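Checklist before submission:
- one chain only
- standard amino acids only
- sequence pasted in full

Submission:
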Amino acid sequence: MKTLAYSIFTAAGITLAGGVQAQQDYPNKPVRIVYPFAAGGGGDLVSRTLAAELGRDLKETFIIDNRTGGNGNIGTDIVARANPDGYTLLVTTNATIVINPQLFKKVVTYDPVKDFSPISLVASQPFVLVLHPSVPVKTVPELIALAKAKPGTLNYGSSGSGGGAHLAGEMLKTFAHIDITHIPFKGSNPALIALTGGQIQFMFVAALAAMPLVEQGRLRAIAVSTGKRSPALPTLPAVAEFPGLETFQSDLWYGFLAPAKTPQAIIDKLNAATRAAVQRAEVKNRIEPSGTVLIGNSPKEFGQIIRDDLARWGKVITSAKVTPEY
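Returned file contents:
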């Protein structure tokens, strides 16, 4: 019996030591980062830049795997079900972690809190509130006053029902108690064409798409949707600066996550490398001219952001009675 017990404890010790050694040696083979949207665009640039920086710092290959479909749900679910060993990771947006699980409850199979271990919030891009030049307002309070004076007559567009731009408009509608009408389009470009043509009056849209039209004088920008002014667009006030809108916050963020139960030592190593990467001047110069702000924070801080956003957007989705498009 003593010999058997000794053998069992010895085997357990070897297994434990092997696990610790594996974490210390991490990574020792290529790492896959799933980005659940198509190649191209701001998010793909963020994910590929991060992968390159991690590869440089951690001396291993980090490969971006674009797994599209289901509004980002397919790729996100792949990571939720992956082995929690640090070799399958996720860079995604708040659409798949915060909005989709509440909007598409019948088809989303992962839990945004239970199925993932946050690593770091990587970056954030504000929506810009833009108007057709014929709309006679220059500030958010003036827009609200106009909407209250002419209820039901102002139309705002978005890239599609249930997207971040749509819900930003619904958040404004809810917070300001105004009667405005949502007009969904199949993408931000058709919505912007309608806005520049005067067919709709205003919309929230990503800074990267909005600012060229603002600079050309075809649209008027009056605010950003983030909780405070964007360093990339410092002259534009935040919606939250105005009375009654202090808790308004709607942005497009990019987060780095691992499957739940990934060893903390691996999470910490990835977090440290991520935070170092987003502070580099060459990375900032590549990413931030698009209006995207690089962040980098702790796993605990990122986890709290996810929980806070779930609560905030849950209220907006319920209040707006958004009908999901399956």
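Reviewer check: The domain at 15-124+252-320 is CATH 3.40.190.150 (D-Maltodextrin-Binding Protein; domain 2).
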